[in-house]
Amino acid sequence: MPVDTKRLRGPEESQSPWLFVEQEQQSPPDEREDGRRKGQVDVRPIFARCGLVSQAKGSAYIESGKTKVICSVYGPRETERKDETDMKFGRLVCTFRFAPFSCAKRCGWIQSTQEKDLSMALLGSLHPGLCLHRYPRSQIDVSVLVLENDGSALAHAVTCASLALADAGIEMYDLVLGCSLRQEGSDYLLDPTFAEETQEPATESTENRGGMMVALLPSLNQVSGLLCSGDLEQQPLVEAVAACIEGCQRIYSVAQRCLLTAVKKKNPPPDG
Amino acid sequence: MTMTSLQETDVLSSVQPITVHVITIGRLASEACAVNMSPWKVCVPGERLCSTEVCKAGSGTYIRHSFIFASLAGYVVKKNEGEELPVISVARETEAQLLPDVNAIVTCKVTSINSRFAKVHILYVGSTPLKNKFRGTIRKEDVRATEKDKVEIYKCFRPGDIVLAKVISLGDVQSNYLLTTAENELGVVVAHSEAGVQMVPISWCEMQCPRTHAKEFRKVARVQPEYLMP
Amino acid sequence: YLHVALLFWQQVILCHCTLDDLRVDGRSCEDYRYVEVETDVVSNTSGSARVKLGHTDILVGIKAEIGRPKLDRPNKGCLEFFVDCSANATPEFEGRGGEELGTEIANALYRVYDNERSVDLKSLCITPMEHCWILYTDVLLLQCDGNLFDAISLAIKAALLTPSKIPKVQMMEDEEGTTEIELSDDPFDCVRLNTENVPCIVTLCKIGQRHVVDATLQEKACSVASLLVSVTSKGTITCVRKIGGGSLDPESIYEMIETGKRVGKALHAPLQDILNKEESLGKSREKVGFIG
Q: N or C: which end of chain C has fewer CB within 10 A?
């Protein structure tokens, strides 16, 4: 167990008082809380901005509902460890972190296994979108921090990271956009909030429950990341993937506009 | 490990096969703008610019299925170069993404020397400064073109010297970028004497300190007269 | 990890052959290599299994220990995974080389197995909020020849399916208020896990236009991306995950999910048969062990 010796921590046994509150068994509501529809491709409105962190090569911030994600990109810099593939292609290193105050339960500062798992998923989603063969012997560091987690953190992290990479001027084949979904019975909830993600099932035997995240390259229509867990039949699973893909396409115009504003603000138009 | 497609035409391309979907009306309009455009058109990565029959691909773009796509977020610039097809490229004004490439002239600073090679930090590629330094090595046999075996590194470079060199190779897994100074225009440009004063070159292998008039051995670069400060 | 460099022409030939449903060793795209499963190989564990899939050799040992349940799941037990890529497998795993691969595999296993639907975690609870069974599952990679996930999932399922030696316990409170654990006297009085829904993982690698099941290292070197599908015996899909650095067409994904479901569903029955046969042999079973 890695022990954090640098920070003064509270007692080992500290727990949140909310754990002891009796959770009343609520059945999942028929309508979604924020007025979006079930079974329809309704994404929360997104606010995105690039170029916030002045020290980083590129950075981006996304806010969607209450979920807030910030990403910084550093590089290309020289790789510390090298192996055969590094001679021809660059290396992408992704770090995904939750801020300790981001979730209902306090997370420690040391990367937990869940965060390492999500970092690998983020890496797999971003990798196909970058032209890494143009950066041999170099390393590009992407660091994503979730400031507040109100559902679909990984999906928004993927979008945020690709906006930051484009802002940093790293050559990419296409933007990478992420969208997540929660399947409950026969309906799906696109872009779920944290409450919807962790909802207990109405009955023990509810079929077809699961959560999924899809990362898409919109212009090329290629899926670069797929992460799904739950208990789903094949047909709902396939429909859910299609719904996520459509959700990603909806986000594309927002991401495009954010990048165009950033380019116009950062760089003056070239002469001639 | 890149995958090769199976179609005959694409066997040599290192890009995977895709199905090109019908683009939406909005993008069609912007594509029309891109073809006969003012240079202020902005694009995002993955945006289709034009087909390879109309333009050639420049920097910041890539070719896929005979269409040119943007790979950077920046301004689309189209340059007409005489009779050939115009070159379309995407420009980002700030910090070019230069990496030391083979045959590039780089400016570096010597960090350590031993009897077989000198280790340097590459600071500039051409005239563009690098944000992150890269490490390079100048081997004993690459210091000069003649009498390669009689070279003594101690008489060519010292730690702290600024050197103009050329990249011969990207090196392999264990080594850094391999550089050479085996040309007249390459070698030490700025060096400080043991007294701490910047030295003046007197020949291709010696520099003199203006204060103590002591001569020290270096492999000096023959800088063009117009670049020398008065 | 485990780089196998193939020359360009070798890759092209491999892809062309896969189009015609013919692979290097003569299998079709949906065939597995020869699998050997043996359970109860390590006697100190509550359940163990050894799986040999082609040249891939996996050993899984499960030890059940009493611990505190997780705070957000007070009335359920849990599984803890640890994957050790030992230097026995390849010299690249020496020191900390295999750690990255081990963490990646362990994280994927958590996602697939450590949930209510796969294993009946409620049956592992002894006293809510106080004591529960924690199944420490340790996976050892003895030899790697591609397709690690499938072999590991077969081994975990086999180890869980065998009569696990998790004894029945009762918590007794004595006069001073301290709790005591009381084991039942009968050594054969065990808790048998309900393992109906334990899924099996099928890894599908995309090579050219087709996808293959159970890829060897050479075939893996030619593929851009793989899809990991975990399927239960009823045909429900519990986890889908894309691994690898390439991208996939949505149509390919739909096809691969369908193949994965078909192949995965078909895996459960033969595995159950083998294990039933082993169990019926009981004490008279010949243990092959590690040699032979």
A: C
Q: Which residue is it, tokens 């009498």?
A: B147
Print the SS3 string covering C12-34: HHHHHHHHCCCCCCCCCCCCCCC
- Match domain B25-91 to its CATH number in 2.40.50.100, 3.40.50.2000, 2.60.120.560, 3.40.640.10: 2.40.50.100
Report chain C (292 residues): mean pLDDT per 10 consecutive residues.
Answer: 64 76 79 84 84 88 85 80 80 69 86 77 79 88 86 88 68 66 67 77 88 85 88 88 89 91 87 79 59 47
The domain B105-227 is placed in CATH, from the list 3.30.43.10, 2.40.50.140, 3.40.50.1100, 3.30.70.270, at 2.40.50.140
Nearest CA in chain B to A130: B71
Residue A258 in tokens:
């954010």
Neighbours of chain A (3+ CB pairs under 8 A): B, C
Report chain B residues whose CB lies below 8 A from the CB of A262.
Answer: 73
Q: Could you tell me the residue ranges of all domains in chain C?
A: 8-282
Q: Confirm or reject contact between C2 and chain A (CB < 8 A).
A: no
From the list B44, B64, B77, the residue facing A260 with the nearest CB is: B44
CB C192: neighbour CB atoms within 10 A?
12
Coil, strand or helix at C103:
helix
pLDDT over 60 at B28, yes or no: no
Q: What amino acid is encoded at B214 in this protein?
A: A
What residue in A sits closest to C198 (Cα-Cα)?
A: A231
Dihedral over alpha carbons C201, C205, C206, C207 (to 10 degrees)? -150
Tell me if C254 and A245 make a contact (CB, 8 A cut-off).
Answer: no
Cβ C72–A229 below 8 Å, yes or no? no
Contact B16 C224 (CB under 8 A): yes
pTM confidence score: 0.83
Q: Is C148 on the interface with B (CB under 8 A)?
A: no
- Across the A:C interface, residue pairs with CB atoms under 8 Å apart total 99
Strand order in the sheet with A222-232: A187-190, A177-184, A209-217, A222-232, C237-243, C226-231, C200-207, C210-213
Encode burial over C91-127: b for 16+ CB neighbours within 10 A, e otherwise.
Answer: ebbeeeebeebbbbbbbbbbbbbbbebbbbbeebbbe
**B20 pLDDT higher than 60:** no
Domains of chain A are 36-266 (3.30.230.70)
pLDDT of C64-117, one tens digit each?
888 888 877 778 888 889 998 877 777 666 666 678 788 888 888 888 887 777
